[in-house]
Amino acid sequence: MSRPRRTARTPVPAGLAEGEAAISTGTARLERDRDDPDGWLVHVNGVPSSYVDLADPTHLAFEYQQWTAAVLDAVLPPPRTVSAVHLGGAGCAFPRYLAATRPGSRQLVLEVDAQLVDLVRRSFGVRNAAGFKLKVADAREGLAKVADATQDVVVRDAFSADTVPAHLLTREFLVDVDRVLAPGGLWIANLADRPPMPHSRAELATAASVFASVALLAEPSVFRGRRYGNALLVASQEPLPEAALVRAVSGGAAPARVVVGADARHFSAGATVVTDAGPTAPPRSRAPGTGPPPTTTTPEDPHG
After folding, report:
1. In 182-221, which positions are buried (b, 16+ CB within 10 angstroms) versus exposed (e)?
2. Is the pTM here over 0.70, yes or no?
3. Which residues fall within 8 angstroms of residue 16, CB to CB, at 6 or more apart?
4. Arithmetic mean of pLDDT, 158-166
5. Residue 192 falls within a domain, yes or no?
6. What is the pLDDT at residue 161?
7. What's the total number of domains in the chain?
8. I need a surface site. Which of 62, 80, 262, 274 has the fewest CB within 10 A?
């Protein structure tokens, strides 16, 4: 995350200061980057959730956000503007990135925590002029109000602690995501998983029940079952450009492995499609080699 130590290039906004604040869902803490005083880390309930670079909105510190940008560029190349809905806001690092790299794009950010939205607005000066609209709303309820076939991309980066809220995982929810996507539109979802990646397998199986083309990205060590880490789900009704995706994420500081097409469906074999009527508890993660992946999964927090 850190880069060579440097001095601040941008004045600190009047409302921005280090410290912890109460929010609707718990606490948020703002921490200044000691190596880059223009950089601020947003912790939500103890979990690093956003890194905001006041001087350079194109700086994406988190690996999964770098992958998200690479996927979007591979499928919908710049300088094309996009219409995007972001499910989960925190510090709005990725909406800032899109506003900077694709000026004129229309973006809606849905964040369930009203006090977090207020903190972000006060601290980072987020207003509609920033290139996106930040709205207080539950992600699923807010998405239901978006018009049909109007969005090029829907990005999910919503967590309750380290778990994706269950109502943002189901087939019924993905049917609504598909409804708002324009032809060729993308569903991109960030998740966290541990060996043997039960949540990734279940999300992949669920997405494959709605979308014609699906892919999963993660660091090779995560796929090999060596550690906990982020994974990125990508889905579309149009064929995903496998070679372009591999090229886009195979280099750089955080190379990812891509599982796409038939390989993705094989990876999710045995996982049950998650539905609104499904169970409320997640499977226990098992060490690699102790048996096949579990056949049912739904994270424990249905509210987010």
Report:
1. eeebbbbbbbbbbbbbbbbbbbbbbbbebbebbbbbbbee
2. yes
3. 30, 40, 122, 123, 124
4. 85
5. yes
6. 72
7. 1
8. 262
